[in-house]
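Run FAD-dependent monooxygenase through structure prediction, thanks.
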Amino acid sequence: MRVLVAGAGISGLAAARGLIAAGHQVVVLEQAAGLRLGGGAITLWCNGTAILGDLGVDLEGVGQRLAALCLRTAGGRRVLEFDLETLAERFGSEVRVIPRGSLITLLASGLPEGTVRFGARVAGLRAGGDGVRVWTRTGQEYSGDFLVGADGVHSQVRALVLGAGQAALTGVASWQGLTPAPFDPGSITTMMIGRQGDFGCMGAGDGLMQWFFDVPWSPGAPPEDRPLEMLRRRFAGWGSPVEQVLASLGEGDAEVFPHIRHRVPRRWGDGRCVLLGDAAHGMPPVMAQGTNQALEDVATLVDCLGAVPDPAGVVGVYSSRRRRQAALASAVATHSLAVSGPRVLMQSEFLMRMNGVTPPRLATRGFGRLLRTLSNRI
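Sure, done. The structure for FAD-dependent monooxygenase is below.
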């Protein structure tokens, strides 16, 4: 089958690898002039690394393998600890943090030369019983038997196929960065939760650290001219390592990413056109589910294209297999934490410490059940 993929991000390149391995002819249409290697680091849970392994992506030596996730109060008191090595042994795949650019490079390196066509932004499409035709803004035309919209949260394919509106802002934003580590975080991800917001940091390999601060966000508010000053005021008095991280940063290190959320549609496409990744279910980065759910989409779509005889029948099967898990992941990412409103009262130092009585073994087991609920792979 001739498959067109819109978007050369993580999900689009992963889809291309999986589809080519399954025997399909693939062309990836990317609006940028080259691979977009910027951005921070990606946390890949056990399902994400397993699916990448299935796609032939060797992650050994790239980024940082994680052994534990430690949840702490704003004062630094440990609340919960999840043993990620136990989960790696249980599921047969590890948890790893990888710079986005490194993962993009790995995914692209396994594609035949010429698979990705740059400067090809989708402007229009027409789908019928005999195939799909796509036009770009520069007037180029591509034809295929099937179209995959992997063109991100502002997907043009979604707009053309579903006519759906933009993803909604949630009222939260992450100020984050990937910078030289001011200390060695080892193989532990630290996340701290308080009434002012939340903070997280983890090693990303090669002496780098991924860090983030989640704070309230209003689209009508004036832009922050000095975000580091704002973060230092807001998180003043927080326990280690917040102060060390903030002290290590310079102007320009912190980028803001407002959280968004799509309404997950019942049907992820129409006819011979389907959506995957952020184009189908953009969600907040809380719990790091976005990329992992996109990889779940890829694995399911490749399987559906091989199992459903009629390409026009793929949308229904694919949508029914993926919608529940993606919607649940989106809900977990949206409602797990609060940075404003009455729910922040539950994140006081006292109440957080009161919840810190769960033995690590039980906490790990519960987290493993959540990961398994959100995955078809593990």
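The longest strand covers residues 168-180.
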